[in-house]
User: Which sequence fits this backbone?
């Protein structure tokens, strides 16, 4: 594949996962400031508090790997939606077309690699959960590390269950060959375990950290993710209760929507959880996030994939500032002073992943310092609005919904007026619309529409089929290696 010279990052963490060599490449952001991946015999590991710290830090490091935030995550979580297109040039990475038109098969590489990326996370979490309890160390720190591992395991299983449906629920590291091959668990069982992990994590995790630990999972992150997991199961009372809790914890909307996504405003008052990344001077191996690079302006600050669609551009209301803050248009000048040339191959690029051009450093991934926003307070407010409406409380639903709109319009009272409808169906549609524009290009839209039951309506023109494309296929390699124990999803061939 032309230009893409950093694909070796896909295998960067495999040895660490398989051999428990947990010094994965990391970045200079407080707790993530560790040396590049090294080698330490597993028999010598899991002895000290320092070992525990390195193991937990490796979990966070893996979250920004290729399979978690770059091509494979984009293919699985974004490309099928109506808000995104393949991007780049027609002949570049043509495999994306299979996700855009829903012809992806069980042998498609990204189907396998996204699956593998989540199980790499889970394996690292399980190693921590298996081994840290026996280490003699500060007991409060031990409990917190265990809670952090449970949070990340829950996050990875959430990504798996909404992408593939019934998946393998592995809650401990295999002790021998008889424990490697496990059957799938049904979605309800997987969701129950996710909720258990998040409940237990929230009981232990702190609400905030000191400067050196900013970016670790917090109590708010666990409760907020729990709310989203409940949303996907239509547990409206739980969604309302959990989001109400978050709304009382000090989170708020960052005042400037465009600036919210800039590097200098990472981990802001609006952030519940972000995958941490940084450009570490003199250490390209530690500056390994490709989230921004793969979506950056083609030929200037990245590869130009996952570009906003014309349908997304048209979805914004007149003069909604979020359109300009979400979409980089060919020929425009950014607020940071970068001109997008008219010669670039795509009409639009993802502005939320944008990093100013003058930050590019030779030998480093473009935009390596850009965090990936996983969960923010605006999403909490919109979940609260949706749940309140489903439970018949239009007053609370409108309050939460209009709080998001008020931030978007800033001081301009002539745009984005408050929503006033109280009919449940009309208000539901208003919340859906607000989610579309507020969370655009954040890898939310595709599965959001599916869990709303609108997949055929919204994605049907692209080739989406009911009773099949609610999930992607189980990777053929996994089925083969299981000896047929794993069962393919309906409508797909092995």
Assistant:
């Amino acid at each position: 594949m032309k230009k893409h010279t950093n694909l070796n990052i896909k295998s960067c963490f495999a040895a660490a996962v398989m051999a428990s060599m947990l010094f994965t490449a990391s970045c200079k952001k407080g707790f993530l400031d560790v040396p590049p991946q090294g080698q330490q015999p597993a028999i010598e590991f899991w002895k000290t508090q320092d070992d525990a710290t390195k193991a937990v830090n490796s979990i966070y490091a893996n979250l920004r790997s290729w399979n978690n935030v770059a091509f494979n995550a984009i293919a699985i979580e974004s490309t099928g939606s109506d808000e995104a297109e393949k991007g780049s040039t027609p002949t570049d990475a043509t495999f994306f077309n299979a996700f855009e038109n829903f012809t992806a098969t069980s042998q498609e590489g990204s189907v396998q690699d996204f699956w593998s990326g989540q199980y790499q996370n889970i394996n690292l979490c399980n190693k921590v959960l298996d081994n840290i309890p026996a280490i003699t160390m500060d007991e409060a720190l031990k409990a917190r590390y265990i809670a952090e591992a449970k949070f990340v395991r829950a996050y990875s299983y959430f990504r798996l269950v909404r992408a593939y449906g019934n998946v393998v629920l592995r809650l401990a590291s295999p002790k021998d060959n008889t424990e490697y091959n496990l059957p799938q668990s049904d979605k309800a069982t997987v969701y129950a375990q996710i909720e258990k992990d998040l409940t237990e994590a929230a009981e232990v995790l702190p609400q905030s950290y000191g400067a050196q630990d900013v970016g670790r999972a917090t109590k708010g992150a666990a409760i907020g993710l729990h709310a989203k997991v409940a949303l996907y199961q239509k547990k409206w009372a739980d969604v309302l209760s959990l989001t109400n809790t978050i709304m009382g914890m000090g989170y708020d909307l960052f005042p400037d929507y465009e600036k919210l996504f800039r590097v200098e405003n990472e981990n802001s008052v609006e952030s519940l959880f972000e995958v941490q990344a940084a450009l570490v001077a003199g250490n390209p191996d530690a500056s390994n996030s490709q989230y921004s690079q793969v979506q950056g302006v083609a030929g200037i600050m990245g590869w130009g994939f996952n570009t906003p669609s014309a349908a997304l551009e048209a979805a914004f209301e007149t003069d909604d500032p979020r359109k300009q803050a979400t979409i980089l248009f060919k020929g425009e000048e950014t607020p940071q002073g970068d001109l997008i040339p008219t010669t670039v191959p795509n009409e639009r690029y993802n502005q939320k992943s944008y990093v100013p051009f003058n930050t590019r450093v030779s030998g480093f991934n473009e935009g390596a310092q850009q965090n990936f926003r996983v969960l923010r307070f605006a999403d909490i407010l919109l979940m609260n609005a949706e749940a309140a409406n489903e439970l018949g409380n239009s007053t609370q639903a409108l309050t939460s919904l209009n709080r998001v709109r008020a931030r978007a319009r800033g001081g301009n009272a002539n745009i984005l007026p408050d929503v006033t409808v109280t009919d449940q169906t009309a208000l539901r549609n208003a919340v859906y619309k607000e989610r579309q524009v507020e969370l655009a290009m954040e890898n939310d839209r595709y599965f959001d529409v599916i869990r709303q039951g609108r997949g055929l309506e919204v994605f049907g023109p692209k080739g989406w089929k009911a009773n099949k494309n609610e999930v992607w296929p189980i990777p053929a390699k996994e089925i083969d290696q299981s000896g047929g124990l794993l069962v393919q999803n309906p409508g797909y061939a092995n």
About this structure: The first helix runs from residue 14 to 19. The chain has 20 helices and eight strands. Residues 8-307+315-460 form a domain with the Serine Threonine Protein Phosphatase 5, Tetratricopeptide repeat fold (CATH 1.25.40.390). Residues 17 and 342 are 44 Å apart (CA to CA).
